[in-house]
Amino acid sequence: MLTVENLTLHYGASQILHGLSLSARPGAVTAVMGTNGVGKTSLLRAIAGRHPYSGGRIVLDGNVLDHPSAVQCARAGIAYVPQGREIFPLLTVMENLQTGFSCLPRNACRIPDRIFDLFPVLEQMKNRRGGDLSGGQQQQLAIARALITQPRVLLLDEPTEGIQPNIIKQIGKVIEMLRKEGDIAIVLVEQYFDFAFGLADDFCILNRGKVVLAKPAGAVSKQEILAGVSL
After folding, report:
1. Is residue 181 situated within a structural domain?
2. Residues 225 and 211 in one domain
3. Is 158 inside any structural domain?
4. Of 13, 35, 111, 160, which is the most buried if we count CB atoms within 10 A?
5. Looking at residue 231, what is its pLDDT?
6. What is the pLDDT along the chain (231 residues), one digit of tens a residue?
7. Looking at 42-142, which runs of residues are DSSP E strands?
8. Which range marks the domain in which residue 6 is found?
9. Where among 151, 166, 198 does a domain terminate?
10. Helices (H) and strands (E) in the chain, counts
11. Does residue 35 sit in helix, strand or coil?
């Protein structure tokens, strides 16, 4: 579904990604791991059109995305749940969800019942302002908003950061359900090792903006992944 080929990215004169390549399959979770500052978030921002990349290419379902904007990426089927969630604090839960309609044709602008099946707390709090939700509830809202856009690729940046354990379990179950449905390629950036290790079908370990390990889960040991992450 998603192929990233020889991607390079700069912030000013500083090069962050160095010829990075990655692939993500439908019905699978690709875990992108590494220590802080190795380029994980920069990679997701590039894929989502949030920061321009310098070289390489991004291919979505066989179609090359030529330095797309965030809007073009979203309309092409790439949904991004950023670190920090970025929900609209003064809008209600329902209004936050409805912002996902901007990627859809008019006849598809509705909130499926499935969203509230996945995240029951959002239905209970649909008239509450986003800024009044707990961190865990905001994270569920951010993921639900991304799913409203009917993505083919779902990018998740640190979805467990600052979240209480019971909601981490709920988010893990949602990711498992999405994977089982087989329609979406999921790219997960995550520092919580056990969470990522338990969900991942494929691993991509980064160090200094380069891929140092890329293997399916069945072909790599936990110790090998830990060693790669700690480089």
Report:
1. no
2. yes
3. no
4. 160
5. 60
6. 899 999 999 999 999 999 999 999 999 999 999 888 899 999 999 999 999 999 999 999 999 998 989 999 999 999 999 998 899 999 999 999 999 988 888 888 889 899 999 999 999 999 999 999 999 999 999 999 999 999 999 999 999 998 999 999 999 999 999 999 989 999 999 988 899 999 999 999 999 899 999 999 988 888 888 887 776
7. 55-60, 63-65, 78-81
8. 1-78+187-231
9. 151
10. 9, 10
11. coil
Q: Which of 116, 110, 121 is nearest to 149 (CA)?
A: 110
The answer to whether residues 73 and 45 belong to one domain is yes
- Evaluate whether residue 171 is within a structural domain: no
Task: Give the CATH number of the domain where residue 34 resides.
Answer: 3.40.50.300
67-93 b/e (C-beta count within 10 Å ≥ 16 → b): ebeeeebbebbbbbbbbebebeeeebb
Residue partners of 62: CB distance under 8 A and separation at least 6: none
Residue 139 belongs to some domain of the structure: yes
Tokens of 115: 């969203």
User: What's the pLDDT at 162?
Assistant: 87
Q: Which pLDDT value is given to residue 176?
A: 95
Burial class (CB in 10 A: 0-12, 13-18, 19+), 14: exposed
Q: Are the CB atoms for 205 and 222 separated by under 8 Å?
A: no
The region, left, alpha or beta by phi > 0 then psi within -120 to 50, assigned to residue 92 is beta
- Amino acid making up residue 153: V
CB 52 within 8 A of CB 206: no
